[in-house]
Amino acid sequence: MSNQSQQCVIAKFGGTSVADYQAMSNSANIVLNNPNVKVVVLSASAGITNLLVALAEGREPEVRKQHIAKIQNIQYNILEQLPENPHLREEIDHAINSIASLSEAASLATSPALTDELVSYGELMSSRLFVEVLKQKNKQAIWFDVRKVMRTDNKFGKAVPKIEEIKQLCCAHLKSLNTQHIIVTQGFIGSESSGKTTTLGRGGSDYTAALLGEALNATQIDIWTDVAGIFTTDPRIASNAKRIDEITFAEAAEMATFGAKVLHPATLVPAVRSNIPVFVGSSKAPDEGGTIVYSANSIKSELPLFRAVALRRKQTLLTLHSLNMLHAQGFLANVFAILAKHNISVDLVTTSEVSIALTIDTTGTSTDGCSLLTKELLDELTSLCNVEVQEDLALVAIIGNNLTTIKGMAKKVFDPLEQFSIRLSCYGASTHNICFLVKSNDADSIVNLLHQSLFE
Ligand code: ADP
Ligand code: ASP
Ligand code: MG
Question: Boundaries of each ACT domain copy (predicted)?
Answer without folding.
Answer: 320-401
